[in-house]
Design goal:
The protein is α/β, with parallel strands linked by helices. The protein folds into 2 domains: about 30 residues; about 130 residues, Rossmann fold, CATH 3.40.50. Helix content is about 40%, strand content about 15%. It is built from 5 helices and 6 strands, in the order H-E-E-E-H-H-E-H-E-H-E. Strands 1-2-4-3-5-6 form a 6-stranded mixed β-sheet, sandwiched between helices. Helix 4 packs across helix 5. The chain is globular and about 35 Å long. The chain starts with a helix and ends with a strand.
Length: about 180
């Protein structure tokens, strides 16, 4: 009887672990309802084209000065989105507004092609966006990176090809 109870307890523990793991891993897929963003700076974005003619967007803190290298964040969006989402999407802009209020420059790029699943064009786009904004603003050599869904693949691909060297990266998992 003791052996049977031990096996039931192991099974229950394993099942509980799997349920918790599934909930944690898929929580980013659930619809999120934000009623209010704690920071509402409503800073508008600046649009610049990179060397390949791809639209890029940046939001610069009001305290920005060219005399000091600024901390910056490269935001890589998911499939079907635009770099402009850093200022137009309520969920993205809430995070971006918070970063800008903390003194970070935030930039994002439209990709030349919508399907950036690890192809060389998107590696080129990420390199060109960084070069364009480093020429326009006084930015530190390495960015922080946030990525959403397909933007995570874009990020890892650019890192693997040596065109992106982030200080820290973060993002959400694609929904399965």
């Amino acid at each position: 009887m003791a052996q049977y109870l031990a096996s039931v307890n192991k099974g229950t523990t394993a099942s509980s672990f799997l349920i918790v793991a599934v909930v944690v891993l898929t929580s980013s897929c659930a619809p999120i309802s934000l009623t209010a963003c704690p920071v509402q700076s409503r800073v508008s974005s600046i649009q610049l084209s990179d060397a390949n003619g791809v639209a890029t967007y940046g939001i610069v803190p009001s305290a920005y000065t060219r005399d000091v290298q600024s901390r910056w964040v490269l935001s890589n969006h998911g499939s079907g989105q635009s770099g402009l989402a850093i200022s137009t999407n309520p969920h993205d802009s809430c995070l971006v507004d918070t970063l800008v209020q903390a003194g970070y420059v935030v930039i994002a790029s439209d990709y030349k092609i919508d399907n950036c699943w690890g192809n060389s064009q998107c590696v080129t786009d990420i390199a060109a966006a960084q070069e364009r904004w480093k020429a326009y603003l006084n930015l530190r050599p390495f960015p922080y990176v946030i990525s959403e869904s397909m933007g995570g693949i874009v990020t890892w691909n650019a890192i693997a090809h040596g065109t992106l060297s982030p200080l820290v990266g973060g993002g959400n998992l694609p929904c399965l």
